[in-house]
Amino acid sequence: MRLTKYEHACVLVEDDGARILIDPGIYSSGFEALTGLDAVLITHQHADHVDADRLGPLLAGNPHARVYADDATAAILREKGLEAAVASEGEQISAGVDVTVHGVNHAVIHPDIPIIPNVGYLINGRFFHPGDAFTVPDVPVDVLGLPTGAPWLKLSEAVDYLRAVAPRVAVPIHEAALARPAAVKIAFLSSLKSSSHVARYCAWSARGSLVIASLPQRKAAPSSAISSSAA
User: Fold this and answer.
1) What is the mean pLDDT of the chain?
2) Each residue's pLDDT tens digit, 172-187
3) Do residues 61 and 148 both lie within one domain?
4) Which of 15, 16, 14, 40 is nearest to 28 (CA)?
5) Does 185 fall in a domain?
């Protein structure tokens, strides 16, 4: 098995003649010219895991590749004119080699943020890519794609997850927030441009100027709850 990482969470898996690309998102690059793909696997709908604008041209260069994604992401891609089959927990996908699907939901980012679907993929019984989740497959994992930096992830949780899966080898993935913090901040601020909320997010830009953007404002807690938490 050969693994090639295209930054962040995007990994090309080559095994027994099969070529499978996982999570080509906005923080990843270099995958655009790949050919001979058997499948493109998407763990969930977040843009750092699927860049629909570049996925279309990639598929045009790989006419025999089939896209698999969770049900919500598959629906979004179909709305954009990209065909995708639904991958659900417990299913087995034939993509040149066997791929089994594990997991249901994305890890909690914050209690105020709705949880979305997320599926992980075990390639040929060896390499497991969990997406944005702490899914522990019910079978042994030889090589684990281990998330290392995310708003839903603490270092202690990454350590506990590594211990729970207990792979022979761990390959760090999902590290853009650590390796390219400026790019992640810009993407985050851009996503807030349409916000009409009152609360503000302030951050220093690379040139030293203060950047202010809108953030969703959380509803105030009842006075009794505030009093009890302050006691």
Assistant:
1) 84
2) 999 877 766 555 555 5
3) yes
4) 40
5) no
Q: What does R_g of the chain's alpha carbons equal in angstroms?
A: 19
Is residue 115 domain-shared with residue 222, that is, in the same domain?
A: no
In a domain, 186, yes or no: no
Residues 200 and 90 occupy one common structural domain = no
CA 108 – CA 118 distance, rounded (Å): 11
Range of the domain at 197: 192-230
Q: 210 in helix, strand or coil?
A: strand
Task: Yes or no: say if 158 and 175 are a contact pair by the CB < 8 Å rule.
Answer: no
Rounded to 5°, angle at Cα 63 from 61 and 68: 105
CA dist., res. 192 & res. 201, Å (int): 10
Residues contacting residue 63 through CB under 8 Å, at least 6 positions apart: none
Q: How many domains does the chain have?
A: 2
Distance CA(42)–CA(84), nearest Å, equals 9
Measure Cα distances from 118 to 45, 51, 128, 155, 196 in Å.
8, 16, 14, 21, 29
* Mean local confidence (pLDDT), 10-14: 96
* Residue 106, amino acid: H
Residue 70 within any structural domain of the chain: yes
pLDDT digits (tens, 9 = 90+) for 91-136: 999 999 999 999 999 999 888 889 999 999 999 999 999 999 999 9
